[in-house]
Amino acid sequence: MNPSRRSAGRYLPSAPVSLPDRRWPSRTVTTAPRWLSTDLRDGNQSLANPMSPARKLAMFRLLVEMGYQEIEVGFPVASQDDHDFVRLLIEDDLIPDDVCITVLTQARDELIRRTVESLAGAPRARIHIYNATSPLFRRVVFGMTRAECLDLAVQGTRLMMKYADRTLAGTDLRYQYSPELFNDTELEFSLEVCEAVMDVWQPETDRPIILNFPTTVERTMPNVFADQIEWLDRNLSRREHVCLSVHPHNDRGTGVASAELATLAGAQRIEGCLFGNGERAGNVCLVTLGLNLYTQGIDPGIDFSDINRIRRTVEYCNELPVHPRHPYGGDLAYTAFSGSHQDAIKKGFDERARAAMAIGASVDDLPWEVPYLPLDPEDVGRTYETVVRINSQSGKGGVAYVLASRHGMLLPRDLQLEFAAVVQAQADAAGAEISPARIGELFLQEYVVQRPLSVPLRFRDMVDTELHVGGGGFTVGAARADAVEQIRTTMLSWGIDVRAVHRTGVGAVSERDDVVVYAECRLGTRTVWGVGIDAGPDTAAFAAVRAALSRALRSGTALETVGDLDAPVMHPAPPLLRPVLAGAAGLDLAGTVGLDRAG
Ligand SMILES: CC(=O)SCCNC(=O)CCNC(=O)[C@H](O)C(C)(C)COP(=O)(O)OP(=O)(O)OC[C@H]1O[C@@H](n2cnc3c(N)ncnc32)[C@H](O)[C@@H]1OP(=O)(O)O
Ligand SMILES: CC(C)C(=O)C(=O)O
Ligand SMILES: [Mg+2]
């Protein structure tokens, strides 16, 4: 914004609350508050296309299944659909015994009458009346004095009770009042209005009242709201019969903080919407609040165990997408692309596995402590599959995680480093994410020789051990238990030091319970890796060494250095090896490139 044209000075800062001995900053939350979902009212009224009856029902059912026991189901006088939905719930007996529905209305005689009538036959229900109390609204919207504004609330409550006496004899009727724009209202006046409303309703143990304090348009920092709530908590009369409720909106993006600090300050109940739907920047998000508690070890009393289904239903009902970065429920909420995050996550999982094994327990019995993951994705029905995704920002830890978790390949550290560079080059070239499937393909292409050798190969030095090739597979004479050692010895005589053979049990790459062998071979000054995947360890080891040779051949420079550290030389390939290499790599060696004994 160009400061010469626009000035922040046009905006009036909110007045701080004088509460020098405020107590909320040193409190901690230990239990969940009561929740009210207003998805079907505040959420619905903010939609370009208000929910159809089918969408309303889907939302109601979802909320009930999740465990919400207080649900604001509409503004019955707003539309025929809203009215009919309330009737449907009552007449089709769709309201479980432990659920209380709420309906909202303005403090206007005719609207109150019709709202009360919409509840006829309900076993239990709450009527919620609101009127704005802030100076701006008194002046601009109502053209009322404070006394007239207070009277609106008082008369509204009286009228509601009068109509309810006539119409709702068999209903367990409960009451809620909200001074709209509470956060912009003089605190003493909010209190005065609420006290006057209570004088009419006369709250008692068996007929409590909900006083609900909204940040209708969030304009202050959350600590100011917390001060306001603590002030009310201290000053409201009949406190034991009052449920002090808050209804934060999210205009400043601090709706969650406002709600949480308000609970420290004395709020017992929070109204909000799933995934923060609602007017303008939304109502406070009930998913975030609930799972924030959960990750502090406090049961929110709400079932979030299938967050994807919750999100899909909410998206269907609201016809609005949930942002991929939305806390806990967004597609990317548990995903790291960046290398150092991935490395830490992988180490976190590895450490958990080790710790669990050490004490003979399941990882689920350990406290959740994984770097960069505040919540175990499985707790909300997500998998670990997308915890790490690979692009140019990723590193070896992430690539190794994908190979392990998606392809069952546990790479030795040096190979992780080497393959990460291969993936990095691809990611740089593509300028996009590399899928786990593509990473698997790249790995196979790079390290696993898949082309069958075209000729039988006999290792002269290996008694009883014969490597036959055909139909794409090897068979190894069974008599030799030390076949790997034999091939190592043979290779060494050709100047190839098979330094290490690493095995992992399962190779999901081939969709069989294969053994994966990683062979680290030294050719001159260069280390070359090859990977073999086969049913048995010996055949896999042979395949791994063969793959390393094939790779060495593909990169001619490596072969040129074999046998001479200082001056690259070209050696004819040993006669025995020449056809192997030709078959493996599809190249005609013709005596020009090859491998020979070092030195
Ligand atoms: C912060 C919130 O979310 S509050 C909930 C808001 N939700 C909605 O408004 C959705 C449903 N609303 C509606 O369908 C309609 O607004 C209705 C049916 C309630 C009323 O419709 P209409 O009678 O056509 O009136 P409209 O909404 O334009 O009227 C505003 C009038 O109500 C008055 N009014 C507004 N709020 C209140 C209130 N809480 N109590 C009493 N009067 C009120 C206004 O001062 C204005 O009066 P005026 O006509 O004398 O100037
Ligand atoms: C009706 C009231 C509680 C409201 O939605 C608000 O003030 O935001
Ligand atoms: Mg609201």
From TrEMBL:
Domain Pyruvate carboxyltransferase: residue ranges: 33-308
Under Pfam families, the record lists: HMGL-like, IPMS_D2
Pathway linked to the protein: Amino-acid biosynthesis; L-leucine biosynthesis; L-leucine from 3-methyl-2-oxobutanoate: step 1/4
Region Regulatory domain, annotated ranges = 450-599
The protein's GO terms of the molecular function aspect are:
2-isopropylmalate synthase activity; acetyl-CoA C-acetyltransferase activity; magnesium ion binding
Q: Which residues bind Mg(2+)?
A: D42, H247, H249, N283
Name the GO terms of the biological process aspect.
L-leucine biosynthetic process
EC number(s) reported in the record: 2.3.3.13
Q: Give the main localization category.
A: cytoplasm
Q: Which GO terms describe its cellular component?
A: cytoplasm
Q: Record keywords: Membrane included?
A: no
State the needed cofactors, names only: Mg(2+)
What reaction gets catalysed by this protein? 3-methyl-2-oxobutanoate + acetyl-CoA + H2O = (2S)-2-isopropylmalate + CoA + H(+)
Q: Which InterPro entries match?
A: AIPM/Hcit_synth_CS (IPR002034), Aldolase_TIM (IPR013785), IPM_Synthase (IPR005668), LeuA-like_post-cat (IPR054692), LeuA_allosteric_dom_sf (IPR036230), LeuA_N_DRE-TIM (IPR039371), PYR_CT (IPR000891)
The UniProt entry's coiled-coil ranges are none
The cellular location(s) given in this protein's UniProt record come to:
Cytoplasm
Asked if Transferase is a keyword of the record, the answer is yes
Supply the Gene3D superfamilies for this chain.
3.30.160.270, Aldolase class I (3.20.20.70)
Query: Keywords, A to Z?
Result: Amino-acid biosynthesis, Branched-chain amino acid biosynthesis, Cytoplasm, Leucine biosynthesis, Magnesium, Metal-binding, Transferase
Family to which this protein belongs: Belongs to the alpha-IPM synthase/homocitrate synthase family. LeuA type 2 subfamily.
The role this protein plays is: Catalyzes the condensation of the acetyl group of acetyl-CoA with 3-methyl-2-oxobutanoate (2-ketoisovalerate) to form 3-carboxy-3-hydroxy-4-methylpentanoate (2-isopropylmalate).
Task: State the oligomer form and interacting partners.
Answer: Homodimer.
HAMAP family documented for this protein? LeuA_type2 (MF_00572)
* Protein name in UniProt: 2-isopropylmalate synthase
Give the species: Micromonospora chokoriensis
Which lineage do the record's taxonomy fields give for this organism? Bacteria, Bacillati, Actinomycetota, Actinomycetes, Micromonosporales
Gene that this sequence comes from? leuA
